[in-house]
Amino acid sequence: MRIVLGIEYNGKEFIGWQLQSNLRTVQGELEAAISKVANEPITTICAGRTDKGVHALGQVVHFDTQANRNKRAWLLGINSNLPRDIAVHWVEFVDTDFHARFLAIRRHYYYLIYNNSVRSALLDQHMAWHLPKLDVAAMQLGLNYLLGKHDFSSFRGPDCQAKSPVKTIYEVKLTNRQDMISLHISADGFLHHMVRNIVGVLFEIGEGKKSPLWTLELLEHKDRGKAAITAPAEGLYLMKVDYPESIKLPENTLANSFLKL
Q1: Lower Cβ count inside 10 Å, N or C end of the chain?
Q2: Which of 240, 241, 161 is nearest to 194 (CA)?
Q3: Which of 198, 226, 24 is closest to 128 using CA atoms?
Q4: Domains 2-103 and 106-238 share a fold
Q5: Is residue 24 within 8 Å of residue 15, measured between CB atoms?
Q6: Which of 171, 115, 165, 112 minimizes the C-alpha distance to 140?
Q7: Per the confidence metrics, is the pTM higher than 0.90?
Q8: Across 10-119, where does the E strand assignment appear?
Q9: Domain ranges within the chain, ordered by starting residue
Q10: 256: how many CB neighbours lie within 10 A of its CB?
Q11: How far apart (Å, rounded) are the C-alpha atoms in residues 64 and 66?
């Protein structure tokens, strides 16, 4: 049978999602835990591979197994074998034509910024600390140029393996509460480091070093070398993955609470 999981993890101590020999990865820990419950080797496929230090509240993963367990047994069994920085929120049985990655139609990311002259010990590794004061209104103006279908080559990481740099962004929204700034961005797909490279550009605009029009100019240049540095990983969260309405998966209440902010 094919089983789908809703996963949350703290990316701080992981080299990333993808399995790598002799390195601690989310996929490695998850597959080890599921394999113990299934009593057979398990291979997982996720909706979106995250990098070193990146977190997730709404990662979606599927795997195939010969083991026969009910949902509660899978949920409790897997979680009891996982380290504290990974948790499974829900389990669902699906048809074998379901694919966590290829059937996803939209992915939602959050980027969280602590904008204060003094760093926070509590928020370290969970929000990106940015010392210079940021003009959120100017940043939002710059973001608006990214809406729609574009070639995002200027925001593409050097190790990106995507076949095409063309993606469609559906939503870009900045929310500012005191010293905390959150970016919600959703798209049909993301290039390697795309969100973090967008945030790097926003930092330049927010500090007044560049105008909001700079994002439009970068889209036209299609040249990563003309853009800003890559923002830190610790502020980035894979929040939610959307699938066609015909695919009914459980809701992640924690992720949905964030999306309403």
Answers
A1: C
A2: 161
A3: 198
A4: yes
A5: yes
A6: 171
A7: yes
A8: 44-46, 55-64, 86-94, 106-115
A9: 2-103, 106-238
A10: 13
A11: 7
Indicate if 51 belongs to the active site: yes
- Domain 2-103 of CATH type 1.10.10.10: no
Structure tokens at 20: 């790598």
Task: Show pLDDT as tens, one digit a residue, over the chain (261 residues).
Answer: 999 999 999 999 999 999 998 999 999 999 999 999 999 999 999 999 999 999 999 999 999 999 999 999 999 999 999 999 999 999 999 999 999 999 999 999 999 999 999 999 999 889 999 999 999 999 999 999 999 999 999 999 988 888 999 999 999 999 999 899 999 999 999 999 999 999 999 999 999 999 999 999 999 999 999 999 999 999 999 999 999 999 999 988 777 777 766
Please give the pLDDT value at position 261: 64
CATH 2.60.370.10 fits 106-238, yes or no: no
Q: Is residue 23 helix, strand or coil?
A: coil
Please check whether residue 106 is in contact with residue 242, taking contact to mean a CB–CB distance below 8 angstroms. yes
Catalytic residue among 51, 97, 151, 179: 51
Task: Assign 163 to helix, strand or coil.
Answer: coil
pLDDT at 57: 95
Helix (H, G, I), strand (E, B) or coil at 229: coil
66: closest CA among 33, 95, 38, 104? 38
b (16+ CB within 10 A) / e for 138-168: bbbebbebbeeebebbbbbbeebeeeebebe
Q: What backbone phi and psi angles, to 5 degrees, belong to 4?
A: -115, 140
CA angle 188, 193, 19 (to 5 degrees): 90
Whole-angstrom distance, CA of residue 103 vs CA of residue 59: 14
